[in-house]
Write a structure and sequence with these properties.
The chain has two domains: 165 residues, Serine Threonine Protein Phosphatase 5, Tetratricopeptide repeat (Alpha Horseshoe); 85 residues, Alpha Horseshoe (Serine Threonine Protein Phosphatase 5, Tetratricopeptide repeat). Helix 9 runs antiparallel to helix 10. It has eleven helices and no strands. It is 73% helix and 0% strand. It is flat, with a radius of gyration of 28 Å. It is mostly helical. The longest helix has 48 residues.
């Protein structure tokens, strides 16, 4: 009876967790489709580094024909459009790139939750099997029970390890600070200052030492005649160990001093 129970348990375990090592689902899930454009992306980046911008643009556009929401291709196309002062087009590209990453991030979170549920269900089934064995006469110490007990305990240990190690650490689809920064720059050029500041703040959440985002934030508040906010940015940046552009900092300090003396 115990052997048949264990067999069912291991079959269930195999169905739920096909990996023999019970490792977590690959952190690249949702990214598999990008493998088909790997060579194109490498070519495009190489062309970009060589400043062959038209060829790079054409290559990234080829990527979009295969994967319309390709976040990397959209990001680079956004940079190219921004460099060419096509700010509205650049904004469109970077918004698609961010949405694409957000979508994959949500899918990752959902699969993580489902994976943990599968582990919990399997663990409960095996634990029931082990408890049944331990409740029989002899507490499962008999020779006929020993292998089953050992297998169940090993399976539980593997499941616990898989549960604690799966989806740990930094999320693979977090939005890079430079994506928010590019979006902020596009909005700045389109004179949407409030929206631009919001994106720079998001960039700083992703990377608190993003110097360019700090500088642009300070400049924006100053240009909008809000010295209090501009001074606040200087203080926040210094608290993070970031040095604001000396000329910009001095301009803000001088303006604040002049205002205070009036």
């Amino acid at each position: 009876m115990m052997k048949s129970k264990l067999l069912v348990g291991m079959v269930l375990l195999g169905a739920l967790l096909p990996s023999s090592t019970l490792r977590a689902v690959s952190p690249e899930m949702g990214y598999e489709k990008y493998a088909t454009t790997k060579d194109l992306m490498q070519k495009g980046v190489l062309l970009l580094n060589e400043r062959k911008l038209n060829d790079a643009k054409a290559t990234f556009e080829q990527c979009l024909k295969q994967i319309p929401d390709h976040y990397e291709a959209h990001f680079f196309l956004g940079e190219l459009a921004y460099e060419n002062r096509n700010y509205a087009t650049a904004l469109d590209h970077i918004q698609v790139a961010i949405r694409s990453l957000e979508t994959m991030g949500k899918a990752y979170d959902q699969q993580s939750l489902e994976y943990q549920k599968r582990i919990a269900e399997t663990r409960r089934f095996i634990q029931l099997s082990l408890d049944s064995i331990m409740n029989v006469e002899g507490g499962g110490s008999g020779a006929c029970h020993a292998p089953t007990v050992a297998d169940d305990r090993q399976a539980l240990q593997q499941l616990d390890q898989a549960s604690s190690s799966s989806f740990a650490g930094e999320k693979p689809f977090g939005i890079p600070a430079r994506f928010y920064f590019l979006k902020g720059n596009c909005l700045l050029r389109l004179r949407r200052n409030a929206d631009s500041r919001e994106q720079y703040e998001k960039a700083l959440q992703a990377d608190p030492k993003y110097i360019e985002a700090w500088n642009n934030l300070a400049y924006l508040w100053f240009s909008d005649h809000d010295l209090g906010q501009a001074m606040g940015i200087l203080q926040r940046a210094e608290a993070k160990g970031v040095t604001i552009n000396p000329a910009l900092k001095q301009t803000i300090l001088d303006a604040a001093k002049k205002t205070a003396s009036n």
